[in-house]
Amino acid sequence: MSQNERSNRCIGCTVDNCAHHAKSENYCTLHQVSIGTHESDPTEPKCVDCESFSLDR
Ligand code: SF4
Fold first, then answer.
1. Are 35 and 51 in contact (CB under 8 A)?
2. I need a labelling partner for 35 at 20 to 30 A (CA). Which of 11, 12, 42, 57 fits?
């Protein structure tokens, strides 16, 4: 299966150092991801995180 076939086009992502990134395209390969926040009162995009991130070693 190619990287492109693994892309989930419902989840765009540019974090290509994540193990779940499609690499050849800016999409995630997971069927679903968990999004959360590290802030007590999130007010802008940088306040939220993909909690499914896994460092690609
Ligand atoms: S798990 Fe999150 S950070 Fe990793 S590729 Fe998918 S959307 Fe991006």
1. yes
2. 57
Domain containing 16 equals: 3-50
Structural domain count, the chain:
1
> Within a domain: residue 33?
yes
31 Cα–ligand 1 center, Å = 11
Best probe residue, ligand 1, of 9, 10, 13, 31 (max atoms within 8 Å of C-beta): 13
Answer whether 0.85 is exceeded by the pTM: yes
For the chain, percent of residues with pLDDT exceeding 70: 93
Residue 56 is assigned to a structural domain of this protein: no
Q: What is the CA radius of gyration of the chain?
A: 12
